Structure formats: structure tokens, C-alpha cells
Amino acid sequence: MECVADLDVDVIGVDWRSPLGAVRRVLGPTKAVQGNLDPAALFAPPGELERHIDAVLDSAGPAPGHIFNLGHGIWPETDPDSVARLVDYVHERTSLAAAARGASK
């Protein structure tokens, strides 16, 4: 990641094998990161999928500049209902976090 830290870009895409917290420390606060759920997590039962999502969001931390996304494409065999669960849960988690930040101001 050090090799891209000095690039003149606003956002760096990160695959699922790179811990977001470590990536954000290397890139610094001026670059956003996009990623990084393992696409295989979409085949997990709903509760396990939520745990994978929580791990990505927790690793990204509360600072602005994280775009939640799959860490590498979506597989053709992926159930659209799993994708809908992913989107709904990420929206729910990030909306609650934003509301909590707003309430603490």
C-alpha cells in the first residue's frame, strides 16, 4: 500500500485481503478507501454475513472516507437477496453511526 500512498488520487480500492485499518493508517486522512468485503461472504447465512459486514465497518473506523463495497466484484452465482441484505444492513449500520455522531455534537 505504501507504493500508492503518494499517488495523486482521491480514492483507493482495497480488496478483502487488506485490513482497512492498516490501509487507512498508511494512506493517511486525505485519501478515501473503497472496499473491502470478501465476495464469498454473500454466500453465508444472514447472521454470518452481518458479522462479516460488521468486521469491515469496524476495521474502517469512524473517520470519514470509507466507501463500503465488495473487495473484488460480485460473482454471477450470488443470490440477489443476499446483495439486498448487504445493502440494507450497511445502510442501517451507517445511518445509526451517523445519528450517534450527530447526537454527540
How many extended strands? Answer: 3
Tally of discrete structural domains: 1
Which strand order do you get reading across the main beta sheet?
Answer: 1-2-3
Q: How does the overall form come out from the CA principal axes?
A: globular
Largest sheet, described in full?
3 strands, parallel
Mean pLDDT score, rounded? 91
- What is the string of helix and strand elements? EHEHEH
Classification by helices and strands:
alpha/beta
Give the arrangement of secondary structure elements:
Elements: E1 11-13, H1 20-27, E2 32-37, H2 46-60, E3 66-70, H3 80-103
Parallel strand pairs: 1-2, 2-3
Helix pairs in contact: 2-3
Keywords:
3 strands; 3 helices; three-stranded parallel β-sheet; 105 residues; 45% helix; alpha/beta
Can you give a write-up of this model?
- This protein has one domain.
- The protein is globular and about 40 Å long.
- Helices cover 45% and strands 13% of the residues.
Short description:
This protein is an alpha/beta fold and 105 residues long. The chain contains 3 helices and 3 strands.
